[in-house]
Write a structure and sequence with these properties.
heterodimer; A: 470 residues; alpha+beta; Cytochrome-c3 Hydrogenase, chain B; 4-stranded mixed beta sheet; 38% helix; B: alpha/beta; Rossmann fold; 5-stranded parallel beta sheet
Chain lengths: 470, 329
C-alpha cells in the first residue's frame, strides 16, 4: 500500500489541545506534523500592566504547571527589585515548587500515561479504550488500575502541601517576589511532612515498581521514539540570597558534551507556525502577528533552537545531566526519568521541610526597581522555562515566555529540521495498522505535552534574539 | 424488549456456545441503561481556550475523590483530559454520545470560545478533511444538551483568555448559546463549586442562580462579608504589606465586590485560601476578572478598572465606601 496520511486527533490525556498528523509508508512513519491548535496571545495580555501582576497573571498560562510560571515571575521580580531572599524563604519556596512537581508527575504517569499501557475498566471515562497492545497479565493489570485510583489521592495530597503554604492550587498566592507570604509554623510543617510521607510511600511502593514493571514489559520502547542526544535544562531549585544557585545543574548536552547554556544562542522562528513572517534581524521589522491562514504553517507553537539545532528538554535532561540516570533518549527513558525524579523530589522536600525554621513570613519586597529589563531561566516540570520582561515605570512593555513544550513540540524550521517530538515519531515502525494510535500516543505522551503553555505569540519588534534578551 | 420476550430469549440461547446470549442481550442492556439510568449524570466535557486549571482543580476534589465522582456521580462520556480513548475513536465517541444522550447530557465547557475568524483560534479536533472549532462544537453540543455548565471564569465570562487586548476575540459560553448557561466561575473553580453543581443537577435538577447565572449556593455572599479579617477592616486596621495578619484591603483585596464562599469553604481539602495566606483575594470569580482586578496589589478604589478617584495612600481609613456587586452580599 502506498503512503497514507493519518490524522491522530484529538490527542487526549494531556493539557490543552493537540493534533498529530502522520504519513505512514508501508509500516513506517515517514513524516509527522504536531499541531498545537489553541491560541490565546498570553504575552500580549501581560502588556501595559503593573509588572508585579506577573506572578498571578502568568500562572494563568497553565493549569498543571501554574506555580512554575508564578515562581519564574517571582524570580524575575526579585532581580528587577533587587530583593534579598532569606534561607527560610528559599526552603519554603522549594517545598512549594517541589509539591507542584509531585502533583504534575504523579498525575501525568497515572492519569495520562498509564492508559497507554494498562487495560482500564470499560466504563466512562475509560470506555472504548482500544488499547491495541496490552501486555500486562491480569493480576498486574488489576494492581496498576488500583494504583491509578490511589494516584488520584497522592496527586491531591501534593496540592494540599502547596495549598497549606500557598493559599490554593492551582494558581497559588503566597510565592511572590521577595519570598513567601505565609509563616512556616510547626503545625504547617508537621502537616506537610505527614502528607509528604504518604506521597513518598506511594512513590516507593507504587510509582517506582509500576514504572519498572511497565519498562520491563514494554522494554521495546527503550528503542522507540528515540531522538538525537541533544538535551537542554536551565537547572532546578534555586537557592541563595539572589536565586543565584541551582541545586540541580542545568546545561546543554550534545552527544556527551555538557556545557552551560548561553542564552544568546537561543533562536526562535515561525516558518511552520501560524504567525506572520518575521522580516529578519534588522531594525523596524514588523511586529509578529497571528496568521491562522498562513500557507504551509500547521501549529500555534513556534520553532525554537539552540545553536541552530532543536533540543529536547524535560526530566530526562535533568536526570542525565545531574548523574541520576544513565540511559538513552527514548520513550521509556523519558517515562522512567520522570518517575525517578518524583521519588528524588519527595526526599529533597523532606530535607527542606526539616530545615525550615518556624518564624514569621519570610518576605521582604523592595519597592523600587533597579533595572528595566530582566531575563530569568529555570526548569519547570516539563523542562527549560524562560521569562523575560522589559518595563517602563513598573509597567510591562514586553513580556515573553518560552515554555518547555515549545522546545519539545517545535515544528519544522526554515531548514526543515524536525523538533524533538516530530523527530521521535518519524522512523517508528508500526507492526500492525491497528497499533498506530496506541504507539503514537505512547511516544507523544512521554513528553508530557502542555499545549496551553506552548501556544503564545512572539512578542518582538525586532529580531528573535532581541526578543529573548532585549 | 418486553419481559416475556427477554426471558424466552434467555432460555433459547442459554446453552448455545460462543456467548450468543451475551451478544444478543448486551446491546439491548446498553441501550436500556443509556435511556433509563437515573443514577449518574451523563457529561460531555469540552476543553476550549483556557489554561487547563479547572480540570486540575477538579482532580483535587476530596470526598468525593475524583475516582468516586467517576464511579458514583457522573458518566464522563467525553473529556480531552481524562478519557482513555484517543484520536478518531475519541471523536467518534463524541459524535455518537451527543446523539445517543441528546437532551439528557450535561455539557461542561472549560475555557472561553474565540469568535474571531469564525473561531479558528481554537480547534478541539481535526479530521482528514476539516477542523472542528470550539465555536462549532459548543454551539452544536450546547443545542443538544439538557444543561450547560461553564466551568471556570474563562468559560463563564471570558476570563484571562479574554483579557485585553483579547487577540482571539474570546468570549464566555453564554455569548455563543441561546440557552441558559450555569456559570461556575473561578480561576480555577474550587472543586466543591463544580462537583457541588453537578451533584445538584443530579439530585435536585437546576440550582438557584444569581444574576450572573451562578449557583447562589456558592456565590450568594461576598468574600468580604464572611472574611475572617472583617473585624480588622471594621476597625480600619489594614496590612502594611503582604504577609501581615491584618485586613488585605490595603493590598488590593477584591473581597468586597467578589461573590464566593472561599473564607468558609477554603481550598484543597479545606486547608487555606488566599487571604488566610496573607495575600489579597483577586476577585477571580468576577465577570470582569482579570481586567477589573489589576493592578492586583493596588487598593480597590484605585485600580485601573474602578471609577473611584486615584490616590497614593497605602493605608486606608476605616469606613471607605465599598461597592458591592454580584449576589446579595
Amino acid at each position: 500500500m502506498s503512503k497514507q496520511r493519518i490524522m491522530f486527533s484529538p490527542v487526549t490525556r494531556l493539557s490543552g489541545l493537540l493534533s498529530v498528523e502522520v504519513i505512514v509508508d508501508q509500516d513506517r512513519v515517514v513524516e509527522a506534523n504536531a499541531s498545537g491548535t489553541m491560541f490565546r496571545g498570553y504575552e500580549w495580555i501581560m502588556r501595559n500592566r503593573h509588572v508585579t501582576d506577573a506572578v498571578y497573571l502568568t500562572q494563568r498560562v497553565c493549569g498543571i504547571c501554574s506555580l512554575a510560571h508564578g515562581a519564574m515571575a517571582s524570580y524575575l521580580l526579585d532581580e528587577l527589585y533587587d530583593n534579598e531572599l532569606s534561607e527560610n524563604a528559599q526552603y519554603l519556596r522549594n517545598v512549594m515548587y517541589g509539591a507542584d512537581f509531585l502533583q504534575n508527575h504523579i498525575r501525568h504517569f497515572y492519569l495520562f500515561s498509564l492508559p497507554d499501557f494498562v487495560r482500564m475498566p470499560d466504563s466512562p471515562p475509560y470506555h472504548e479504550q482500544n488499547l491495541a497492545d496490552a501486555r500486562l497479565n491480569p493480576a498486574d493489570n488489576q494492581r496498576l488500575v488500583g494504583n491509578y485510583f490511589e494516584a488520584i489521592k497522592a496527586g491531591q495530597r501534593s496540592h494540599e502541601i502547596l495549598a497549606i503554604f500557598g493559599g490554593k492550587a492551582p494558581h497559588q498566592h503566597s510565592f511572590v517576589h521577595g519570598g513567601v507570604a505565609v509563616a512556616p509554623t510547626a503545625d504547617k510543617i508537621n502537616r506537610a511532612l505527614a502528607l509528604l510521607d504518604s506521597i513518598h510511600a506511594f512513590a516507593t511502593t507504587s510509582l517506582i515498581p509500576d514504572t519498572e514493571l511497565i519498562a520491563r514489559v514494554y522494554r521495546d520502547y527503550f528503542h522507540i521514539g528515540v531522538t538525537p542526544r541533544r538535551l537542554l535544562s536551565f537547572g532546578l531549585f534555586k537557592f541563595g540570597p539572589h536565586n543565584e544557585q541551582a541545586l540541580w545543574r542545568g546545561g546543554v548536552l550534545t552527544d556527551n558534551q555538557l556545557n552551560d547554556p548561553r542564552l544568546e544562542l537561543i533562536k526562535e522562528e515561525v516558518t511552520s507556525s501560524w504567525y506572520a513572517e518575521q522580516a529578519g534581524p534588522v531594525a523596524d521589522a514588523r511586529e509578529v502577528e497571528p496568521a491562522p491562514y498562513k500557507p504551509g504553517a500547521y501549529t500555534w507553537i513556534k520553532s525554537v533552537s539552540y545553536t541552530g539545532r532543536p533540543y529536547e528538554t524535560g526530566p530526562l535532561a535533568r536526570m542525565i545531566m545531574n548523574g541520576f540516570y544513565q540511559g538513552g533518549t527514548s520513550t521509556m527513558d523519558r517515562i522512567y526519568a520522570r518517575s525517578l525524579e518524583t521519588l528524588l523530589i519527595t526526599e529533597l522536600m523532606r530535607e527542606w521541610l526539616l530545615k525550615l525554621q518556624p518564624g514569621p513570613a519570610p518576605l521582604k519586597q523592595n519597592a523600587e526597581p533597579v533595572k528595566n529589563k530582566v531575563v530569568v531561566t529555570t526548569d519547570a516540570m516539563r523542562g527549560a522555562l524562560l521569562h523575560s520582561a522589559r518595563i517602563v515605570d513598573e509597567q510591562v512593555e514586553r513580556y515573553n515566555i518560552i515554555t518547555p513544550t515549545v522546545w519539545n513540540f517545535s515544528p519544522k524550521d526554515q531548514y526543515g529540521q524536525r523538533g524533538p517530538v516530530e523527530s521521535a515519531l518519524v522512523g517508528t515502525a508500526i507492526p500492525r495498522p491497528d497499533m498506530l494510535g496506541t504507539m503514537l500516543g505512547r511516544i507523544v505522551r512521554s513528553y508530557d505535552p502542555c499545549i496551553a503553555c506552548a501556544t503564545h505569540v512572539l512578542d518582538a519588534r525586532r529580531n528573535m534574539q532581541d526578543k529573548i534578551l532585549f | 424488549m418486553q419481559q416475556k420476550e427477554f426471558v424466552e430469549l434467555c432460555r433459547e440461547l442459554a446453552l448455545v456456545d460462543d456467548h450468543a446470549l451475551t451478544k444478543t442481550i448486551l446491546p439491548v442492556v446498553k441501550e436500556h441503561l443509556a435511556n433509563n439510568s437515573q443514577n449518574k449524570l451523563p457529561v460531555i466535557w469540552l476543553e476550549t481556550n483556557d489554561s487547563g486549571d479547572n480540570n486540575i482543580a477538579f482532580m483535587n476534589t476530596t470526598f468525593p475523590y475524583l475516582g468516586q465522582v467517576f464511579s458514583e456521580m457522573i458518566d464522563l462520556l467525553y473529556s480531552n483530559t481524562f478519557m482513555a480513548a484517543q484520536g478518531q475513536d475519541a471523536l467518534m465517541i463524541l459524535e455518537q454520545t451527543a446523539v445517543l444522550y441528546r437532551g439528557r447530557f450535561t455539557l461542561v465547557v472549560e475555557g472561553a470560545v474565540p469568535l474571531k475568524d469564525n473561531g479558528i483560534y481554537n480547534i478541539i479536533a481535526r479530521t482528514a478533511n476539516r477542523s472542528i472549532t470550539a465555536l462549532e462544537a459548543v454551539t452544536r453540543l450546547g443545542s443538544l444538551a439538557q444543561y450547560v455548565v461553564a466551568n471556570g471564569t474563562c468559560a463563564s465570562f471570558g476570563g484571562p483568555t479574554a483579557a485585553r487586548p483579547n487577540l482571539s476575540g474570546s468570549v464566555g459560553v453564554r455569548d455563543v448559546l441561546d440557552k441558559e448557561v450555569i456559570n461556575v466561575s473561578g480561576c480555577p473553580t474550587n472543586p466543591d463549586w463544580f462537583v457541588g453543581t453537578l451533584a445538584h443537577l443530579l439530585l435536585y435538577g437546576r440550582p438557584e442562580l444569581d444574576n450572573l447565572g451562578r449557583p447562589t449556593l456558592f456565590y450568594g455572599f461576598t468574600v468580604h462579608r464572611h472574611c475572617q479579617r472583617r473585624s480588622y477592616f471594621d476597625r480600619g486596621d489594614f496590612a502594611k504589606k503582604l504577609g501581615n495578619i491584618e485586613c488585605m484591603f490595603s493590598q488590593g483585596c477584591m473581597g468586597p465586590r467578589t461573590s464566593a464562599d472561599c473564607p468558609y469553604r477554603q481550598w484543597i481539602n479545606y486547608v487555606n485560601w488566599p487571604v488566610k495566606a496573607n495575600t489579597p483575594c483577586i476577585g477571580c470569580t468576577n465577570e470582569d476578572f482579570p481586567d477589573g482586578s489589576t493592578p492586583f496589589f493596588t487598593p480597590l478604589p484605585e485600580k485601573s478598572g474602578q471609577a473611584a478617584a486615584p490616590g497614593g495612600a497605602q493605608t486606608l481609613p476605616a469606613g471607605v465606601p465599598i461597592t458591592r456587586g454580584g449576589g446579595p452580599g
